[in-house]
Amino acid sequence: MTTQQLTEQIKKKKSFLCIGLDVDLNKIPKHLLKEEDPIFAFNKAIIDATHHLCVAYKPNTAFYEAYGLKGWKALEKTIMYLNVKHPEQFTIADAKRGDIGNTSTMYAKAFFEDLNFDSVTVAPYMGKDSIEPFLAFEDKHTIMLALTSNQGAFDFQTKKAEDKELYKQVLETSKSWTNSENLMYVVGATKAEYLADIRSIVPDSFLLVPGVGAQGGNLQDVCKYGMNDSIGLLINSSRGIIYASENEYFAEAAAEKARDLQAQMEAILSK
Amino acid sequence: MTTQQLTEQIKKKKSFLCIGLDVDLNKIPKHLLKEEDPIFAFNKAIIDATHHLCVAYKPNTAFYEAYGLKGWKALEKTIMYLNVKHPEQFTIADAKRGDIGNTSTMYAKAFFEDLNFDSVTVAPYMGKDSIEPFLAFEDKHTIMLALTSNQGAFDFQTKKAEDKELYKQVLETSKSWTNSENLMYVVGATKAEYLADIRSIVPDSFLLVPGVGAQGGNLQDVCKYGMNDSIGLLINSSRGIIYASENEYFAEAAAEKARDLQAQMEAILSK
Q: Which parts of the sequence belong to the Orotidine 5'-phosphate decarboxylase domain (chains A, B) (predicted)?
């Protein structure tokens, strides 16, 4: 999917919501545990109930790897279901990968070819030759951590490096990399006040914004400082939506939470 | 395994060699492709031929994920084989993970509990609360990227942040984290000249050193500047050992390459 197509989807659905599929077997409704594949059963129900309200789904690979083979199978079934039933959805493998060149190529193949995700999240610490192998894939997107939503972001990301905070160095340096037009960036909603500065460095890139809801980020602030002419934002909510209820109507409850956010987004877009 | 036990193994085997199991189906001997699980068949043969020459094995997860379910299954079989047949080996999941707290906990469970690795590599970009969940596991080790072996290391890691290079900030800051005694660090052999500085910050920690061989790092230099009283080094070689030959005697060829490195290490240890 191209970023133009993503923006079209956002305008059509009046939503720039991304739903994080972070499935924890301790948190899903108990009756699903009887299913052959409880993780996929949960995801399918959530997707069926919410796909008209969002433009992207983001499984975090940690939650699947924690269940070993079963988990990886559930991830495969989830992305296949999305690609077959909802090809209009932008899919994000939230994997935060990054390694030396030939190894990054293997990760890129895993997520872009084997699983056929539209995008993958990566960590910038190892620099240019750890990210360019991802950028080499046509019509695929690489979403690099810039300023994350957690407290630990202040450990290194905001440290001044050569008179500029590390996350700004990361943003600026990455613009010179081959195929950098395939880059998007992670910027936590909990750091909305930094968005104006970030937009001055990467005015056109899409930003994936986690941290609205459970982590306390504010949607209005994010949009005020982060939105561009192509919208340029994907706001992620995971726990706040998918664990809205533990009873048999969990999918409807999730849809209600998604609807709340979509309605707020529609109001912002119509301004 | 404790670091004391690791040092004992090193002294007993006169080797601080770690063998990287980065299995690429395009590079393994063709006759193995007929096997039901070619990746595991390759790993088993390499392990059987080399286990007396090394103290650690390090599968890089990228190479397994690239083959989807089959790959994950091969990884499970490999670590199980190591844990059952060679419990004296220190096992490293080279995964370079790192995420916000609850997600890092899921990764830690995946590698420490589900797969039962002794250690996992992590990326520091997201700071303290992304790493501490790994450190919370008793008798498990978390190996954090400090100064990596690739060219991209100079993009951010060596940038001066508050008058100190980022990788030094990473080393120093991490010492204050809860359970930091469970930390080890990745330092590329291609950056041997930095090792004296690194040792002044983390004198007692084990360093995992990739980049000897294929990437051009020098073993003597690494030992000169990086070794401490408990040895404190694990030198990794992957491609240089496991792809020594493509014919039916590939495992013997790998053992020969491992023997070369082990002999060099024995000479250094006996000085």
A: 16-254
Report helix, strand and coil shares of chain A as percent, to nearest 5.
50, 20, 30
Tell me the per-residue pLDDT of B79-138, one tens digit each, with 9 for 90 and over.
999 999 999 999 999 999 999 999 999 999 999 999 999 999 999 999 999 999 999 999
* Chain B residues 140-179 with a CB less than 8 Å from chain A: 145, 148-157, 159-162, 166, 169-170, 173
- CA-to-CA dists, residue B8 to B5, B11, B16, B22, angstroms: 5, 5, 11, 26
Q: How many CA within 13 A on the CB side of residue A181?
A: 6
| Chain B residues in contact with A215 (beta carbon < 8 A) | 100
Res. A126 pLDDT band, cuts 50 70 90: very high
Instruction: Look at residue A208 and give its three-state secondary structure.
Output: strand
The sheet carrying A164-165 orders its strands as A164-165, A160-161, B160-161, B164-165
Query: Which residue in the list B11, B14, B77, B96 is annotated as catalytic?
Result: B96
- Which tokens hold the place of B12? 């007993």
- Residues 6+ away with beta carbon under 8 Å from A80: none
Task: Kindly give the interhelix angle for B250-269 and B219-226, rounded to the nearest 10 degrees.
Answer: 40
Name which of B118, B98, B95 is nearest A103 in CA terms: B95
Tokens 């491609």, located at residue: B239
Per-residue HEC secondary structure of B114-135 comes to HCCCCEEEECCCCCHHHHHHHH
Question: What pLDDT shows up at residue B108?
Answer: 97
Nearest one of A174, A223, A222 to A202, comparing CA atoms: A174
Residues paired with B60 in a beta bridge: B94
A271 at interface of B, judged by CB pairs closer than 8 A:
no
**pLDDT digit string, tens, across residues A32-50:** 999 999 999 999 999 999 9
* Fold (topology level) of B3-269: TIM Barrel (3.20.20)
> Is pLDDT at A140 greater than 90 in this prediction?
yes
Q: Which of B24, B98, B155 sits opposite A123 (nearest CB)?
A: B98
For chain A, say whether B66 makes contact (Cβ under 8 Å).
yes
Say if A52 is an interface residue toward chain B (CB within 8 Å).
no
Q: Which CATH fold would you assign to the domain A3-270?
A: TIM Barrel (3.20.20)
Q: Which two tokens stand for residue A227?
A: 């939105």
Beta carbons of A173 and B162 less than 8 Å apart: no
CB atoms within 10 A of CB A178: 11
Domain boundaries, chain B: 3-269
Cα→Cα distances A128→A172, A235, B156, B188, B198, Å: 12, 26, 9, 16, 23
For residue B94, give the 3-state DSSP assignment: strand
Task: Tell me the residue type at A41.
Answer: A
